[in-house]
Amino acid sequence: MLELIKHSYFCKLHRLLNITNKSVYIALGVDLEGKKDVLGLWISENEGAKFWLANFTEMKNRGLNDILIACSDNLTGMSEAIQSVYLKTEHQLCIVHQIRNSLKYVSYKHRKSLVADLKPIYTACSEEQAMQALESFENKWNKQYPQIAKSWYKNWDNLMVFISYPTEIKRVIYTTNAIESVNSQLRKVIRNKKVFPNDMAVFKIFYLAIENITKKWTMPIQNWNTAIAHFMIKFEDRINLN
Prior knowledge:
Elements: E1 2-15, E2 18-30, E3 36-44, H1 49-61, E4 69-72, H2 78-85, E5 90-93, H3 95-102, H4 108-122, H5 127-141, H6 146-154, H7 156-159, H8 167-173, H9 177-189, E6 195-196, H10 199-214, H11 224-234
Parallel strand pairs: 1-4, 1-6, 4-5
Antiparallel strand pairs: 1-2, 2-3
């Protein structure tokens, strides 16, 4: 399983008299033992299918032969790049990020009831039931917030990947919380230093921080023992625990 995310902050890189804003992207993998590891770290001014294609190709060349499920926020060009390198990989968009994006322009007084009306969509037992919940949401909220239902429809295929899975698999793929935890710790590292002389300076400080973070990753992720049994059934032709 693979989780990918774009940092919500920018590292500023000083070049002569110019300061360039660049984003830091990070990929985290979970192996068949349920243990996490950081698989890649990239810095770029922009993202897109070409950018992610190069990154996935790099990871495959380094030995990442297969990805069962990739979970990410809605990064530009991500799905196209995954399918180009890993044909069998299923790409699930992070539900938590989808909800956050839905709330960006919602009045504070409407947030609680709007979130409650979104919940039947992603907790539905079937895609048909989820679609009915989305249609109900659209009928209620579309006049005030037309962009929300539109976004769910647009990303529907990647939002609904997990819905056919048993609960044990859903628990470990519907959100990117594991990688969000890494992000939180990396933010602390650069809290008091926002400007760096070059890309390598950013890589070095993050590399050292990640080394310290990953030393604590000695145990499988939560609920992995029950999840792996279901992974073996779902992906029996691609999993070999020997």
